[in-house]
Design goal:
Length: 389
């Protein structure tokens, strides 16, 4: 295929939090071949002039539920698999058009979804899947129930054999569950067994946890990424550092749920829990940011709320600088995925997952919340998904 050359681009370097001016970027066979400050020419190349625009890596959402195309879990279960696939394809297309070129699915998506995207059956971000969420009896959400070490190991072996990138365990109650938020899902022995089993497959455990107690316990047992974690405190910060773990807050979902027409019929109890975790979540993010923890960008949306996927940028902007939020949604997301150098930055050898932005998101992160107008070009694996340049 003929190479594409992007000329005169201001390239976002998410590690440094700066723009590199006047760069030429050569794209060949779906990957970035060269990034240079000299002008390149290649025979038969397609050239695109990006003067005055920002070129940035495609975004990574480290906590999505691509297959939860309805917020009504009973309705979801009633769908035919063929109908589900059609709905999931729409959810994923929406994510890609918001600028997400890779998503880490935290419960539901499987090898079939990932394969359909990779084969180009529809447009969507690359899907890193874990299979069903694993929970103990009485646990939270749309889950696979496992009790005891043997059942956990069996479930993880099965999910790994199907190509899972990670497994997610529920390690505390949740908002849309009958369990108390401060309840602890699994025994330490069970968590350690799951962590061991995942590590045998060279994969890892992600843990759904809210309170400092649940988070700290998970970190001590070797859980690599903490999902939500709204109620962490100073004691958690040290453990994140010691264990080189990642923190993946998901503020967008709580704010979306407080709004009308969310599609969830929330009980009064759930509503009360929701308000408790919202304020705490922003404080926790601020604490983690000041402490320099590794933070991923997560949203955790369901059903019709998927269109709020970019609100996480504005929510985080209340306590974080744009450069730090952008790092979460790019290079840190890549590290969580184990794909550093392949996604999340514009370097030779990486997939050509690229966004052209009208304006500079380092100065105004809110630009990214208006993708219809501000995302002028979206490319995944070198293929143009949208171009309104
Ligand atoms: Zn989730």
């Amino acid at each position: 295929m003929n190479p594409t050359i992007l000329l005169n681009a201001s390239v976002l370097d998410p590690r440094a939090g700066t723009l590199l001016p006047d760069r030429s970027v050569v794209i060949r066979d779906g990957s970035i071949e060269e990034v240079t400050d000299t002008r390149v020419r290649a025979k038969d190349a397609v050239t695109i002039d990006l003067r005055g625009r920002t070129l940035m890596p495609g975004l990574i959402d480290s906590h999505v539920h691509a297959t939860q195309a309805s917020a009504d879990f009973a309705e979801l279960r009633s769908w035919s698999p063929y109908y589900s696939a059609a709905r999931v394809s729409q959810v994923l297309r929406g994510m890609l058009l918001r600028g997400f070129t890779t998503v880490r699915d935290m419960g539901g998506a499987d090898h079939g979804v990932a394969r359909a995207v990779e084969e180009g059956l529809f447009d969507g971000p690359r899907v890193l899947f874990g299979g069903p969420i694993i929970a103990p009896t009485g646990g939270h959400g749309l889950t696979r129930i496992c009790d005891g070490e043997t059942e956990l190991r069996r479930a993880i072996r099965e999910q790994m054999a199907l190509g899972a990138h990670h497994v997610k365990l529920t390690l505390s109650g949740g908002i849309i569950s009958t369990m108390r938020v401060d309840s602890l899902g699994y025994s330490e022995q069970e968590i350690r067994a799951a962590v061991d089993e995942a590590s045998l497959a060279r994969r890892y455990v992600a843990g759904h946890a809210y309170t400092a107690e649940a988070v700290n316990r998970a970190l001590r047992c070797g859980v690599r990424t903490i999902e939500h974690g709204n109620l962490i405190d100073e004691s958690s910060v040290e453990l994140f550092r010691q264990h080189e773990a990642f923190y993946v807050p998901t503020l967008a979902t709580y704010f979306a749920l407080t709004q009308q027409g969310a599609g969830h019929a929330l009980s009064d109890e759930s509503r009360r829990k929701l308000h408790d975790v919202i304020d705490a979540g922003l404080h926790a993010l601020e604490l983690a940011d000041r402490a320099g923890l590794e933070i991923g960008y997560g949203t955790d949306l369901h059903g019709a709320l998927h269109d709020r996927q970019l609100t996480e940028f504005s929510l985080r902007a209340q306590v974080q600088k744009p450069a730090d939020i952008l790092r979460a949604a790019t290079v840190t997301g890549a590290e969580i995925a184990g794909m550093t150098g392949h996604i999340g930055e514009i370097v030779p050898g990486a997939f050509a997952d690229l966004l052209v932005v009208d304006g500079n998101p380092l100065e105004d992160i809110a630009l990214l919340t208006e993708p219809e107008r501000r995302l002028l070009l979206i490319m995944r694996n070198g293929a143009v998904v949208k171009n309104i340049l």
